[in-house]
Amino acid sequence: MWNYLVESMIFYPVRGVAITPKQLGIDGEEVFFATEDDVRIHAFYLPAPGAHRALLFLHGNAGNASHRLPNAAELARLDCSVLVLDYRGYGLSEGRASESGTFADARAGLRHLIEQLGFSESRVVVFGRSLGGAVAVDLAQDRKLAGVILESTFPSIADVVSNGRGGGWLGALAGKRFDSASKIGRVRAPLLFFHGDRDEIVDHELGRRLFDVAPQPKAFETIRGAGHNDLTQIGGRRYFERIRSFLEEVAPLS
Length: 254
Known about the structure:
With 254 residues, the protein is of the alpha/beta class. The protein is built from 9 helices and 10 strands. Helix 4 packs across helix 5 (131-140).
């Protein structure tokens, strides 16, 4: 009962597809693949022909993958193929969302990039936004990834809820869920953090706290004036150029 209650406060999935690559006028396709526990996962794949590097996009706790397509398209324009997946229970994916489920879904997405699409693990960058940042940290442990980008994320769910109303008991219920602080020391890939200094959901200080316990090499970029959901808009060209430069550092085109 308690587990279901906590997960109902963490996950806000939206079923279906709100928009397609065709409607946006971009090159992309829908793909499906299975997790290790045999859950069918839906994703969008946006290829960047000739780039030979890929980005696995792990979104936050609300909406679904289709809502991230405009952002994924901007990332694909950085000469990087993008796979943005629906966690189980989201979009067109089967199942019900859970912490362990999101971790398995991310592993399946990475496996699809490597085994079906032919990317080397060392040419894959994992991008995690908000809750997706915790999923990215779990996935990246002890792997030979090109890099990891963590945006608007946190040390643990308990840290986030403890900052809000009723945080004491909610934090106790959250326990060790999505505990990136205890895992990030095992990330071997270069790390790039983004966080808005006006983030109203995940305080900027929480992002810095996770950064402080992360291993080198790492960098932290504060987007001035940005909240939790407008970081790309406020960051604008500078934000995307910083990602491009990171990609060139960790998985150069030439």
